[in-house]
Structures are given as C-alpha cells and as structure tokens.
Amino acid sequence: MKIIVPIKQVPETSNVKMDPETGTMIRTGVEPIVNPLDLYAIEEAVRLKNQYGGEIVAVTMGPPSAHKALREAISMGCDEGILLSDKKFAGADTWSTSYVLSKAIEKIGNFDIILCGERATDGDTGQVGPGIAAWLNIPFSTYVSQISEVTETKVTVKRIVENGYQLLDVERPTLITVVKEINFPRLPTLDGKIKAKQAEIPVWGPEEITAESEHLGLKGSPTRVVKISTPKVSRDGERFSPKTDGEMEEVVDCIIRFFEEKEII
Amino acid sequence: MTEYKKVTQEIVDKLINIVGERNVIWNEPDKLENYSHDEITDKKYAQMPDVAVKPKNAQEIAEIMKLANKEQVPVTPRGAGSGLSGGAVPIYGGIVMLFDRMNKILEIDKTNMMAVVEPGVITNELNQLIEPDGLFFAGYPMSVESCYIGGNLAENAGGGRAVKYGVTGRYIMGLEFVTPEGEILNLGGKLMKNVVGFDLLKLLIGSEGTLGIFTKVIIKLLPVPKARVDLLVPFADPETAINAVPRIMTESGIIPTAIEFMDKLSFETSYKFLNEHFSHDDAGAMLLIELDGTDPEVLEKEYEMVGKLCQDNGALEVYIADNHTTIERVWRVRRNVAEAFMVYSPVQSLEDIVVPIGSIPKILKDIKTIAEKHDVLIPTYGHAGDGNLHATVVKKQEMSLEKWEETLPKVLLDLYAKTHEYGGSISGEHGIGHKRKKYMVDSVGAPAVELMKRIKRAFDPNNILNPGKIIDA
Lengths: 265, 473
Description:
Number of strands of chain B: 19
Number of domains of chain A: 2
Number of helices of chain A: 6
Helix content of chain A: 25-40%
Strand content of chain B: 15-25%
Helix content of chain B: 25-40%
Low-confidence stretches of chain B: none
Shape of chain A: globular
CATH architecture of the largest domain in chain B: 2-Layer Sandwich
CATH superfamily of the largest domain in chain A: HUPs
Strand order of the largest sheet of chain A: 9-8-7-10-6-1-4-5-11
Structural class of chain B: alpha+beta
Order of helices and strands of chain A: EEEHEHEHEHEEEEHEH
CATH topology of the largest domain in chain A: Rossmann fold
Number of domains of chain B: 4
Distance between the termini of chain A: 58 Å
Largest interface: A-B, 19 and 27 residues
Structural class of chain A: alpha/beta
Oligomer: heterodimer
Distance between the termini of chain B: 8 Å
CATH architecture of the largest domain in chain A: 3-Layer(aba) Sandwich
C-alpha cells in the first residue's frame, strides 16, 4: 500500500506576535515547524503502514528550506520526502497549491490513500486537502477521527459531523483529512533522525510535474487578499459588590440594568 | 518561645494607613484561606493568617515591620504560594505579606547583562520579556509558570537546569531588602565579583523569608542558548535508567542542561492528568535529557552521541524533541508530575532528598525496600542529573488515616537515615519550612543549628519575621 502525506511548513505560532499596523505576523525569530495538525496525518500513515505494510511518501510545496519539514516526517517514520520548490510556485493560494500537489501526486503514482491534516495553523482554510482530491477526481472524507479498516477496495472511516459521527465506506484510492482525535503523534526517534539526515530529498519544479504555468504561483491564484486585520478585543467590565445583605437587591438591579444596556438580556 | 499578639482592629487601621484600604484583607475568611497553606496538601501544616497586606514598596514594608515589632505580631512573607515546605504559611497567624503589587521588571540592563526586578515578578515573565534580546535567567523551578522571583530567592530554588546552570542563588548579584526590624538595606550590585565583608547576600538567599524581605533583586542574565534539544528515553526499569545517568555524565564529555528521571507511576500519573498518551507500555522508567548550545550542528552531533550512549545502556527507544512545540510537550509531562499526584493521591508527603549522583542507584533500591517494609507507595522522580530525587511517600488506598499518621514519620526516618548514609541531604530545593524543622539537628548537627539560631536572633531580635521556620530561635 502506498500512502502519500502532503504536509506544510508553518511558523511556530504558539507564542507568535502580530504587527498591529499591517495585521500580519512578525516572522523574525519564529522557527518554522511541521504544521501541528499534519503530525496527526503522519502518525496515522505510520500506523497504517505498521498494520498493513507499504510505504509512505511525504510531499510538501515550499521554499528550499522546507526540506526540514520532510526530514521531520521521515524521522517520524515516513519512507521518502519530495520537495516541490520553484520560484514559479511562490504566492500560491489554496487552489494553486492543491493543483501543484495533485500534479506531484500523479507523478508519484500508484497511491492508495492520501492523508492530510485537517488544516494548516497559519492559513486556517482546510481547503488544500479536498482541493487535491478534486483535482485528482477521487473521493475524499474530511474531519476523520478514525480509520477503522482498509481492504483491497475500500477504506472505512469515521468522521465527525455537527451532531455526531458518520461512518463511511470509501473506495480506494481516496483522500482523508484527519482531526486531532484520531491519534497521539509520536516524537521523532534518534534512528529516525539519523535516517532523515541522510535521506536524499528530490526537488521537483513545474517541469518535473508537468504543471501548466497559468495555474502556478500568485498569478495562477484566483484568491485576492484585500485586507488583513486583527480583531480588537476589549473588555468592558464593571464591578458591583454589596457591602451589606440589604444592598444585595440594589446590586442585582444594577447588574440587570448593565446587561440590558449591553443588550445581553 | 515568643508570645505573639492577635491582630486587632486598631492594628488593621494602622496597616490601612500604610498600604491603603484596598490592600488589606481583613475579616474575609474566604479570601484569607488562600494564604493559609502552600502546595502541601496535608491540612495539618496550614494556618490561617489574621490579616493579609499588599505593600507596594520597601518603605511601606519597613513601616509594617516597625509596626509589627512594636505590636509583637508575626509577619510571614508569601510569594506565589507554590512552595513545598510550608515556608509561606503563617504558623503563628498574624500578618501575611503579599507581593502581588510589587511585580514590576524595573530594568533590563543589556550592557551589563543584568535585570532588576521586584519580588512579585513571575519567573517565566522575565524570561519571555528578555528572550527577544537573546538573554535568559537560568533559574528554572518546575513551577516556572506561576512562581515569583522573590520566592525563588527565598527558597534558593533549584529545578530542572541545575546540572549545567546551578541553582537560583548563582544568578543573584544584588538585593534591596527590609530587615525584620524595618531597616532598608542594599547588598551587592551589578558586580560579578565582590568580597567586602561577610557574604550576607548568600546568607539571605535560601533563608526562607526568615532574615529579610526582598524588595529589589539584581539578576545576572546569560546569553540564551540558540539551540535546545531534549531526548525522551524510556527504559525497562528504574535501575537501568538510573545506571545510565553517571555514564552519560562521564562518558559523553558533555554537560547536559538537565537529566530528569521519572519512574513508571510518576509518568503514567502525569500522562493521565494531562490526558496525553505514551506508547511504551513496556517502559518502567524514563529519562528526559536536555542539551543546549550555540550551534545546531554541534548540538546535533552531541545529542546523537548521548542518544547512542542511552541505546548502549538499555534504552528501549530514544525520542528527540528539537523544536519549541515538542520540547514543551515533553517537559510538560515532567513539570506536572507533582500536581498530578496531588490530584490522584492527596494523602502524601513530597520529599526532596539529594544524594551524590553516584549513589542514586543505591538509594533507589533502598527506597523500594523502605516502601515494602512500611506498606506505602514511594513513586520517585526528579533531577537525576544533580542527585535531587522527589521520592513521594503516598498512602495506599487500604491504609487507614490513623495508621498513615503513625507510619509516615517512620518512613521519613528510614529515608533520611539512608540519605545521610550516602552523604546526602534531606532537602535539595524545597527547603525546611516547618515541615522538616524537626529533622534539622539530625541533618546538620546541634552546633550548626545553634549557630543558625544566633544568626536569626541577630537579624530578628523579636522573632517577628516568619517565626517557626527552619529553626525555633
């Protein structure tokens, strides 16, 4: 069985600061890491491989330095990593990104399952996974919390929906985006790290994946960012405390009035 | 023994005059209860204060101390209350002094690599502020997210990085403090060397709030290591894990920042508490080894070497955490062991013994024997790299509370006797407080205790400041 895991390198956002002027993130000193939600996809791929055998190929589109993300994936148990890196890819939106990834996956070929994280922690769209499936014209399931069975022809998944779970039998090949509930990602091992350090990571550009240039990069992206702004959080509290029991009723009235003014009740 | 007076309305009015009405908590038992205990779960170590005050500067503290001396009312300074020996508990009632309003970072002096802070600054906040400047404060108690720097100083807090960086006191270069009688004094400065007179600065550090009240602290900062990596290493059993420690320390030629040890009961309890999962059912113990350095490539070679040493010495696997997210993930487990135990087994005594690192394998065996002899659980975790072990004596479910009260002192006597046999000490970083006071003579000898009493009397003739801690002066 061949499993492909498209991953993304994102800025470490656990203690990130925003520039209040531009509304963008201050990237200096922020280390790039594998998108935390992609780790669940990698972990699930490693588990499936351990159970059913096969190989795992991690693939990412990004700057040349993104090979680090692929090495991280290899150190967790992926067999190979492929880096899609070219100036022409730069500035891609989710539509163009999923196009490039789908072309790379076509080139890898012979795949059975594509596993993606639910979304990336920087862009937060959750569109690239389903986008890849659409370009490849294969079935996909999102928000999957369990892959219960893989047979010769189908995959049984449990996906989280608004008021419960949905159990689906999906034909292979298929794409699955997974949620945090699915597993606990393992840490890279020392042996994995050494293997990852030595791994050859091929770099593919538009020619290698026979991508059409009008679909690439900023120019090939239909999305236009008009404005980015940071929502302003303000707290507008007031404190009413009764000094004696007799004042209690008065204070309650004050609170009700306060809520009414704020149109809460 | 000194006779203390209860705090009266008249005294409270005087306190209000000093700090303002908003900063005095009086006649509000619900609020005062928070200041009656620290992180020790056993209620017998708790005591309600009469009143709590929140001064904002050294002058106010000096006035409070003068008033307290005049009125014969004890004063107990209290940081964040995350202590583990009762140091901040007002065992004779009286005034609890809080530092919530003295939480300003006064100066970051990049030229001299020093910070000047007030005692109520949370340790982690200082580090977060100076990290962008490439600086850090090397003190790293496990309560780093909540503890106050003043408390770190009072206890001379150790923690997870002592193997390489030593403990809090090493980084304290100067102090402004208020004496028990209400004088404001300065010690040291932004100086790396200073040998004028007795080293009162070092005497105050670790004095558990019995000799003076810190109001300003000058802290030496270090360049923040650019690269950090942690190795999480499961072993089949504690013996194998612990036996690997001296080998890592001597054969690698590398000084790790930390080597932390957790036995099975410890890490399983913490994982459960954090709702995390660890996929090594065969693991009986774990080491968490941290290395840091300036060059990521050099560090990579170093961790490979340490990792291979672990593999050669019985590691079941060697996991590597080398970015902020994964490092935090592995340390969170270690940091939360103590809290997890308080949730799952509140009837316990968290111990803090320290032995020479070469004796750790031996004392671990002794701990096992002691646990079996007295029919208690003693999960053990701690700072294996510096010999500081948090053996936690825990009551078994089936043991009655009466029996436990009878058993615990016997367990401690056995544990401390073994500790002393190896040239160890009964507290590495938690301190004596009132919890371990009765073991002082056995630990340091009667003449040393007598000398400490005389020092205490010299600083605090009326025995007003945090009385009944460490020794009975």
